[in-house]
Design brief:
The complex is a heterodimer of chains A (310) and B (387). Chain A is of the alpha/beta class. In chain A, 37% of the residues lie in helices and 28% in strands. Chain A has eleven helices and 14 strands. Classes of the chains: A alpha/beta (310), B alpha/beta (387).
Chain lengths: 310, 387
């Protein structure tokens, strides 16, 4: 049942099109058991589609693989028993109370003592005192905690979380991630899609997907190293003007403002340094060579993939 | 490419005719949405055309060629000419010839025939003797509209029947008497017909809507996605969604029948348990059809429209508003495909005629068949994935 090899998700060559538009292209990935795997990429990059394929909600046009050792095409029903899927949009019943929602899920999975299971989960989620509140009336942060609770209730082996923290305040986000780490420590595998870089850095491994193509994957350090990007951070006056002038110069792959500084990055160090040369001595500007941030890497990857695939 | 690279020219905001402008914006948007919603668009055309064609041709309030039976206790020439004369009025069509009173009663009770003509033993001889014997015509008057024109035509039958007969000498003023007996509803009270019919009609409407919205509601609220990701099978979803409303429908049926009996004085001659049992079957059939609708449509508006598409023919072609026997054959075939048609026969027969399960076998089986058909379509149509 476990596949025996410590791999929770192992898929090859997944492809899926909607109405002639390819949303996922030849996607292969492996996720180790007990790890937190971050799934990053711009909107519409195919993250949600991939997650839906993994939990049997969509059938891939081509490609194959296993999820928890079960074939994703043939054993969708078995996968569903072992997988907790948290949808991007809140998809519990808004007109049921917290307790009723959890009891519904518990009964559906056939847990013995559904009431008890729901009661325990309410305690674990810190929702005691709110159990009779309608789910639709909860705040964003509580809704998301409840949704996580509902999908962990039947003790799944794998959690698929689709942008679970979108639109949630920083405190609730931190609590949520602490919970995810606690679950992973208990042996759960977690695949989580996100837009937030700080969340990506909390993952054991990440993958970056854009326009349906998986562009890079590995640990955060590996991804940064693989990018072979050199970044200069500039501070000083009139950075907007500088950004406009530098954009498009040879060797400069990306110019991106970060608060009061500007990140200028390129893969070809020599060309990059030649291009920024005229501005390096300019008074009022302070240049510093730094290692690229994860965000630099992703924005550069995205910019490049746009040219390739669109 | 960013907005900075290609600055758009600044546009003025016009203040005049603000009301019209904003209404126009809304109107354009609505038209676009309507055009995108293909099913709604089709319904706009289909609904009126189909309904008009269907009902314009199918409805006939003075039905002819009504199914009839004859209880023949003597086989004489006179009897034959009388039957011929009855058929010549174009109101009667003899489908059954029986020789036993029980068979005769059962035909009327089960609704297979609307009229029964009884020609007693020794009829011809009595006529020749000038005894003025009685010819009994029993009419199923549960639907007074269907029966009245035919009953009215009986008077002239006597004359025409004898015109060509070998009667020797001038026939007396009235050689025999036709005794029309309006069974089950002697006062021709229309509420006796309509109230039991309303039980079925109201149940059709409410049950259909309950389940027709059930699946689309899950889809529209986004709960379908997590429901599908959980280990539940389509049949289980269906039963879970139908069963609660069986109880609701049962309460409704109880209410309507109680009011009908208590307030409108509709008799309840038959077995109450049988009525409850078959009503539950009818309720379940409608719920199954409603559920099927909800697996076929994409949103709640379409679900309502499709329910209407089903409900209107149910009212008009089932025999609720217009006599079933008066419809052309094709409309009757359509009507047989509607659960309400069968339930109307069942509920009228049990309440007004005291019919038994034996009399109602066909309609019961038809309801079961329609229910199973709807459920099969629903389960196969239910999408287990989001593809």
């Amino acid at each position: 049942m476990n596949g025996g090899n410590g791999i929770a998700i192992d898929v090859k060559g997944l492809t899926k099109s909607f109405g002639g538009r390819e949303v996922v292209h030849d996607l292969s990935m492996q996720v180790k058991r007990g790890s937190i795997y971050g799934f990053l990429g711009p909107n519409g990059s195919g993250k949600t589609t991939t997650i839906r394929i993994l939990c049997g909600l969509l059938t891939p046009d081509s490609g194959e693989g296993t999820c928890l050792g079960y074939d994703i095409r043939r054993d969708a029903e078995k996968i569903k028993r072992q997988v907790g899927y948290m949808t991007q949009r809140f998809s519990l019943y808004q007109d049921l109370s917290v307790r009723e929602n959890l009891e519904f899920v518990a009964r559906l999975y056939g847990l013995t003592d559904a009431r008890g299971a729901a009661r325990d989960m309410i305690k674990r989620l810190g929702l005691s005192g709110r159990e009779e509140q309608l789910a639709g009336e909860l705040s964003g942060g509580w809704k998301q905690r409840l949704a996580l609770g509902a999908c962990t209730l039947p003790n799944p082996q794998l959690l698929l979380l689709d942008e679970p923290t979108a639109g949630v305040d920083p405190k609730a986000r931190r609590d949520f991630w602490n919970e995810i780490h606690a679950l992973a420590a208990e042996g759960l595998t977690v695949l989580v899609s996100t837009h937030y870089m700080d969340e990506a850095e909390r993952c054991h491994e990440i993958a970056y997907i854009a326009y349906g193509h998986l562009l890079t994957h590995g640990t955060v350090e590996e991804v940064i190293a693989k990018s072979a990007l050199t970044t200069y951070t500039v501070t000083g006056e009139d950075l907007n003007g500088l950004a406009a002038e530098l954009t498009g110069k040879p060797g400069i792959d990306m110019v991106a403002p970060f608060g009061t500084s500007l990140h200028v990055s390129g893969r070809d160090v020599a060309a990059l340094e030649a291009s920024i040369g005229p501005w390096r001595e300019k008074s009022g500007l302070h240049w510093q060579k730094s290692s690229p941030s994860l965000e630099d890497v992703f924005i550069e990857l995205m910019g490049r993939s746009k040219d390739n695939f669109q | 490419m960013s907005a900075v690279d290609h600055p758009a020219p600044r546009r003025e905001i016009r203040e005049r005719f603000g009301f019209l402008r904003r209404s126009y914006a809304m109107l354009v948007k609505e038209f676009i949405q309507l055009r995108r919603d293909r099913v709604s668009f089709a319904m706009i055309i289909m609904l009126p055309v189909m309904q008009l064609m269907l009902f314009g041709y199918a409805i006939n309030t003075t039905p002819h060629r009504l199914p009839s039976a004859v209880l023949l206790q003597e086989d004489s020439d006179l009897a034959r000419s009388i039957l011929k004369a009855l058929e010549n009025t174009a109101y009667f069509r003899f489908l059954y010839e029986v020789h036993d009173v029980d068979d005769f009663d059962n035909l009327l009770k089960s609704g297979k025939v609307l009229f029964g003509v009884e020609i007693p033993r020794g009829f011809e001889r009595a006529v020749r003797r000038g005894d003025r014997p009685a010819l009994l015509v029993a009419a199923d008057a549960t639907d007074p509209v269907a029966a009245s024109a035919a009953i009215g035509s009986l008077g002239m039958v006597v004359q025409t029947a004898l015109k060509h007969d070998l009667y020797i000498g001038d026939p007396p003023e009235m050689p025999f008497e036709i005794r029309a007996h309006a069974r089950y509803n002697p006062a021709a009270s229309s509420s006796l017909n309509i109230v039991p019919g309303l039980v079925g009609t109201i149940l059709t409407m409410t049950m259909l809507i309950f389940t027709a919205l059930s699946v689309t509601r899950e889809v529209e609220r986004g709960t379908m996605e997590s429901l599908l990701s959980m280990p539940i099978r389509p049949v289980e979803v269906m039963f879970g969604k139908i069963v609660p409303y069986v109880l609701v429908g049962f309460v409704q049926a109880f209410l309507i029948i109680s009011i009908g009996v208590g307030l409108f004085g509709v008799p309840l001659i038959g077995n109450l348990f049988l009525l409850a049992l078959l009503s539950t079957l009818f309720i379940t059939t409608n719920l199954a059809i409603g559920y099927t609708i909800s697996t076929l449509v994409q949103n709640q508006l379409q679900a309502m429209q499709m329910s209407m598409m089903f409900f209107l023919p149910s009212i008009l072609l089932s025999g609720f508003m217009f006599p079933f026997a008066g419809m052309p054959a094709w409309a009757q075939y359509l009507g047989e495909g509607l659960p309400l048609t069968h339930y109307l026969r069942i509920v009228r027969a049990i309440m007004l005629k005291g019919a038994t399960m034996q009399n109602l076998r066909f309609d019961t089986l038809a309801l079961v068949a329609l229910m199973l058909l709807a459920m099969t379509i629903a389960v196969t149509r239910f999408r287990r994935t989001l593809d």
